[in-house]
Amino acid sequence: MADGRPEDTGLPPELRLLRGITSRLPPLPRMAGVGNHLARRFYLRKPRSPVVAEVRGFQMELDPAELVDGLLLFGPQLHDRREVRFLQRHLRPGDTFLDLGAYIGFYSLLASRLVGPEGRVFSVEPEPASFERLSGNLDRNRADNVLPIQAGLSDQRETRTLYVDCSGNRGSSSFLHGDGLAVSVACAPLPTLMAEHGFEAASVAKLDLEGMEFRVLDHWFDHLEAPHRPRALIVEHHPGLVALAGGHTPDLLRAMGYRLRRGSRHNLLAMRGAL
């Protein structure tokens, strides 16, 4: 990657030109969203196929018609930059990282590089099409220290309906709400799923579960002694979903000894002790 900008030699010329512009956007508030909206809207004026593009040193298959893919395609240096810095600060070689709600693998790939060959990444995604793309991106980058699992997370073993958002934001598919494609998914509590696949504890975790974060964390913390809780967490929180979620995630995290600060969009950055 030359001077911090993506290498796009294999992409269509028009896309290379757009990326050449958007990869120079400065890290100003809302710049990632604005750049993605304008560039993606222009690029999608006609049908486009998925492409394989460079994202922070990784090769990822991205669908320009999907929101998160567009953010990675047209502003990889801006996407979730606070969260990226947080992981770079708190994730160490040899650590275990949980990517819960992995979508197509951006965080799994970042963590794979940061924990190194002695570390492990547990990557969980319930939506079938996203899981297929996640697996492809892991294979594409030879991320052998990542274990991808297609499953849902809950506070009990159950089968839940996943409402798949097919309108251009597949990453927002949810067990709690939606009117998209309904898919039945087998769900399990996080401690159960970890134990079944040989993961005893986690150093750092990211939860992007579209409203299921409280249920998953509350059950996990009930089965986890304080010294074994992750030292750092990235947790999505939607205030409008608290009633459906079963509880208030920020209050739960504070009660468990975490200090919080804001990340990008709906994300909370949590760490035990001082941030």
What can you see in these coordinates?
The two termini are 31 Å apart. Strand 9, helix 8 and strand 10 form a beta-alpha-beta unit. The chain has two domains: 2-74, no CATH class; 81-272, Rossmann fold. It is globular, with a radius of gyration of 18 Å. It is of the alpha/beta class and 275 residues long. The protein contains ten helices and twelve strands. Strands 5-4-3-9-10-12-11 form a seven-stranded mixed beta sheet, sandwiched between helices. The protein has a three-stranded mixed beta sheet with strand order 6-8-7. Helices cover 33% and strands 23% of the residues.
List strands and helices in order, with pairings.
Layout: H1 13-22, H2 31-43, E1 51-55, E2 58-62, H3 67-74, H4 81-90, E3 96-100, H5 106-115, E4 120-124, H6 128-140, E5 146-149, E6 152-154, E7 158-164, E8 181-189, H7 190-196, E9 204-207, H8 213-222, E10 232-236, H9 242-245, H10 249-255, E11 258-262, E12 267-272
Parallel strand pairs: 3-4, 3-9, 4-5, 6-8, 9-10
Antiparallel strand pairs: 1-2, 7-8, 10-12, 11-12
Helix pairs in contact: 1-2, 2-3
Per the CATH scheme, the topology name of the largest domain is Rossmann fold
Overall, the morphology is globular
CATH homologous superfamily placement of the largest domain: Vaccinia Virus protein VP39
How large is the share of residues in beta strands? 15-25%
Helix content: 25-40%
Q: How many helices in DSSP terms?
A: 10
Average pLDDT works out at: 93
- What order do the strands of the largest sheet run in, or round the barrel if closed? 5-4-3-9-10-12-11
Uncertain segments are none
| CATH hierarchy: architecture of the largest domain | 3-Layer(aba) Sandwich
**Major sheet details:** 7 strands, mixed
Q: Assign the CATH class of the largest domain.
A: Alpha Beta
